[in-house]
## 1
Amino acid sequence: MAQPVLLTGAGGRVGQAILRGIGDEHDWRLLDREPLAADRIPDRVADADLYVADVTDMDALRDAMEDVEAVVHLAGDPRTDASWESVLRNNIDGTQTVFEAAVDAGVDRIAYASSNHAVGHYETDERTPGMYRTDDDYRLDGTEFPRPSNLYGVSKATGELLGRYYHDEYGIDVVCVRIGNLTRSHPPREYERGQAMWLSHRDCAHLFDRCLRADYDFEIVYGISDNDRKYYSIDRAREVLGYNPRDNSAQYTFEGDPRDDV
Amino acid sequence: MAQPVLLTGAGGRVGQAILRGIGDEHDWRLLDREPLAADRIPDRVADADLYVADVTDMDALRDAMEDVEAVVHLAGDPRTDASWESVLRNNIDGTQTVFEAAVDAGVDRIAYASSNHAVGHYETDERTPGMYRTDDDYRLDGTEFPRPSNLYGVSKATGELLGRYYHDEYGIDVVCVRIGNLTRSHPPREYERGQAMWLSHRDCAHLFDRCLRADYDFEIVYGISDNDRKYYSIDRAREVLGYNPRDNSAQYTFEGDPRDDV
């Protein structure tokens, strides 16, 4: 039997996309700060072990990580206008606690949910809206120094720094996914930026599945679908992770779309 | 009369190098967590206004920043083996408080003491000790993604992220100086790494003087002397700041060296 995967923030939007997409591909432990409502536990993970804990609680994290193969760390304050106090505690301190507990528990791999807001200020007045359009070849590729668009973005970029440190110091495999605009059924309408960084639910689930299966050391990749409009390169995700997205915001049809079922 | 410059962490090693080198070049306000001992207030800054405050104290910082031209932000836990709890509070939260107070006070410029430990894990087993030697052309130039060597380094790199954000969001001029190995009188003996990243006291003072006078937007530069051995480029500091170091660890003579007087 494969070792389980711990999913922090299991009740959040990204966690739900993952569980609904690849719930039966791994043996999950689901951790959230609040007990998960029944509708947040899809049938395919009905047997998962449930943990209720704050990610700043080192002892609880160590317990939850015992004998796990990998951690998918999503927990944190997801609000782009979150206060400094909140992101300092929930996102920065929480992520350090996750990495430190992983070292203690001997976890080999962590996939970390970073955000497009870690690099949001690359979208300067000079570059926009041109960079959102298909005839513009401006690309961020994950090697650039972050330019956070808000304090939430600062906290997400700090999580990447922590990932880099824990990889270099302890050899844990770490992948940071700068998640774009995740929506359940269809890409944002009449919002060029959102279409350029759209990530469908099924591509999101597939991408994190690749994060759990591929071989890598430390990576920062962009988590978007294969949109015609894009200013994030997905080359690295394709090459290193074997990411093979199926969706494209330009090809969305608003009726009978299969993504509604994901 | 020129507006004053606020120096946080005035009693620390970098602060003392700055005050002893360029104390009479600016009108200083000196802030430290503890009252400065008399021997930490050089004659040339005997008239400086003194502030005793923790850098996590927003109200105290706002008061200290009233009508200042610029802030040189050095305060923080300087220990490379400092605990996460300490660097989270003193370095990360403290630096965010400094930037936030600067916005409130209308400060236009902040020079921030980052560290070589923000990028210490570039010194891999494969690259060392070759990268410390003069026949090796490996260089970091300040554009690279950080690779912190410890949690102190994570905190220093997070300060850079905060600087990037506060520059992009509020237009404050920010320069981050990744300070090398600062020693008072002579470079470290028989320590190749320390010689490669040596920063003399007088070059340190001159570099921060340039940070207070030059025109820039957001910069990350390396703070080292013009050592023959080097793996940090000082090209950017020369070009943008007009940094013109006078010292070189290879040229040090151990007797009667003028640096002892700086």
## 2
Amino acid sequence: MTPLARELEQLLAPGDRLLDPADCWTYGADNSKLHAVPDAVAFPRDADMVRELVRLCRRLGVALTSRGRGTGTTGAAVPDHGGLVVSFEHMNRILEVDPDNRWLIAEPGATNGEIQQAAGATGFFWPPDPTSSAYCTLGGNLAYNSAGPHAVKYGTPRDNTLGLSGVAGTGEAFRTGVHTTKGVVGYDLTRLLIGSEGTLAVLTEATLRLTPKPEATRLIQAVYRDVGAAARAVSRLMARAEVPSALEFMDHSAITMIRAYAPDCPLPAAAGAILMIETDGTEAGIEATTAGIRRAAEGEGCVQTLSADTPAEAQALWAVRKALSPALRTVAPKKINEDVVVPVSRIPDLIAGLDRLAAEHAIKIVNFGHAGNGNIHVNLLVNPDDPAELAAAERCLDGVFTLVLSLGGTLSGEHGIGLVKRPYISRELDPVALGLMAGIKRTFDPDNILNPGKAPGPA
Amino acid sequence: MTPLARELEQLLAPGDRLLDPADCWTYGADNSKLHAVPDAVAFPRDADMVRELVRLCRRLGVALTSRGRGTGTTGAAVPDHGGLVVSFEHMNRILEVDPDNRWLIAEPGATNGEIQQAAGATGFFWPPDPTSSAYCTLGGNLAYNSAGPHAVKYGTPRDNTLGLSGVAGTGEAFRTGVHTTKGVVGYDLTRLLIGSEGTLAVLTEATLRLTPKPEATRLIQAVYRDVGAAARAVSRLMARAEVPSALEFMDHSAITMIRAYAPDCPLPAAAGAILMIETDGTEAGIEATTAGIRRAAEGEGCVQTLSADTPAEAQALWAVRKALSPALRTVAPKKINEDVVVPVSRIPDLIAGLDRLAAEHAIKIVNFGHAGNGNIHVNLLVNPDDPAELAAAERCLDGVFTLVLSLGGTLSGEHGIGLVKRPYISRELDPVALGLMAGIKRTFDPDNILNPGKAPGPA
């Protein structure tokens, strides 16, 4: 038995720990498909126990990797340095919902869906809602600053979090932020921790800023001749004072794939790109808002727009988008899913460049995503049993990142760095800024025990 | 001649420096009325020169205080450690406006008004617009995270800045952030620098996120029997999906003062509190939006609401609010102007507590401010020639801060800490968080030359 296992046996009840490697196995993976078995898994029930666990790991000099439900795609939750995985399954309470002051306090293990449900009961929502909302956790949303489709109007977790509690790598517990929408006393540690992928502190509680639910929503499907026309429509839509509440994009490869997989999906023959545009507002104002946004979507290169006025009609329109994921799985057993971001006006250059890279490396690339933020999910479809194709995909990916940076973009909008993007971050980040980040890491975690080797932290 | 003066003579053209103490005198104050004469003033023209100046100060071990137009109220720009003041009068260019991607790049010496003008020419605005917009600078707005009345709908500088360039206390230049509305590669240094009052880096450039100008705005004046009724109306207004674009508050003391100073101002006798409510939206939607917001404002304790449909009518309604500043100056030559924040539902408790403190210490207190954020400007009116009253005001202020913290609030929404609030920050901030902030300060500025003794930095 390792010293870690021996001490955990003393510290935690049997239901709050796993010490057998076979039991620990499933806590070694996330959705990146990378895997490493931790030495032990702990399920703390409160912030005091989190503090004890951090102190224990620091004393023993072993790594501590925080974990939600493992829906991350970059390996940030994979314990490749061994040590302890801290899973938040037992710290998943909604502690307080205050509609008068528009906040909700929750533990990191609560799922995004549970938070939406608790907020929804009082007429509010928390704007970040990744596609995995039903099972991804608040802790993961904060670790990667994950937002999903509504960020175009409502922002990311950094825009929707008031304060945090956590434990630094020193083993000291601390609070950040305020319970108010303004506050400038001291440095902004709240936003520094959001997006830090568990490398600075283990979060134990978050105070989230709530937004009132809109009275009404509408959905428009707009079909374009080509991606350039769709991207110019995105620019027109984003120049209006009333932005859509979601502005999702699919390129021609995605449409080809949907046609092959779901030939009944009603799409005009000339469809070269699609925008799914959600609007929201008051009952009194929604028709005017939607009409204005639809007019902006219609223009040069627009083949047709369809509007859904009822939930059933909306569901029919979303069916096209929803056909994409099973189609992708059918075509290729492995997809390398990147979530690059470029300035909105550069989307056509991005898609054209991706087409060139796909041809050059003989790799199928399918693109869709959150066009209003310029956040495009670039999917390289590969056969994992073909080593030559895997190597070509790696070279292609390298070209994708070079392209994105040449367009003034960033390598990740909401998936983070984790393990898989570490080789690339020095291409994007200023070397002096990287040095400052390393200093911040040393301040919070002097012994480098918190998720070592992830995000911009040292190996 | 000091070594600093000698080197500045070599480094800078005569028009880009001040070395005579008489010339330096005016660069020693801000709107806190505190004053200290710097040893020299430099007016750099580009980021390279800023870097040279930081390196010079580091080598000589003298303090460097960055300065905009000195509209700050907390002494953050007062060079109480002597050394060099760096004034951004010659770095005030708008470098780029990109309406397609909704950004504007500017140097820190540009005024907020100049930025609004440049953004406005393409149909956009930058949401932060403090009352001093015409003469306060971007650098100061970023230093204090200053926002003004529209933050209730559009957020503060932290919500509206994409990236920064700056020079750390090490003398190294660096970039932070992205040109996109999403990005999670590396720690969020952009927001860490915003609100840090020049203690971590000297900013040389900022990429600001623009918002399309609304097509239409309307103004409602709502008069309440008492502050409790007004605060409950604020809660009702903030629970709606469509928030006002401004939600300003004046308490009974402010109304009494206006009555005395401007007896012609049309206010009902029963006025115990006033809300000024601005709405914005599309031409098509503004009437419905305004009607909905007006209905929410009307309710228990509401004496009357007036709505302005033309600019002239709006000006007449604003006249009441605008009478306040000259009234305050007439009543008392000195006001101690605090900008505390409490959760919106606690505004009645705050005002009741302030009434008690005013009576207890025999100090006149007038309250107004940004009610939608719970950000109340608390003004203690004192005669600076009366030492007993000044001492009473200090004791009263101490009570104000205790009250605010007991209500879950924060000591500053947008004025910052500077010199005047330093004695109080350890009451609000967690000691471990303060230690982490000190570590961040050491990382950015190991020799403590950047604005020493301000904000949470060491003395």
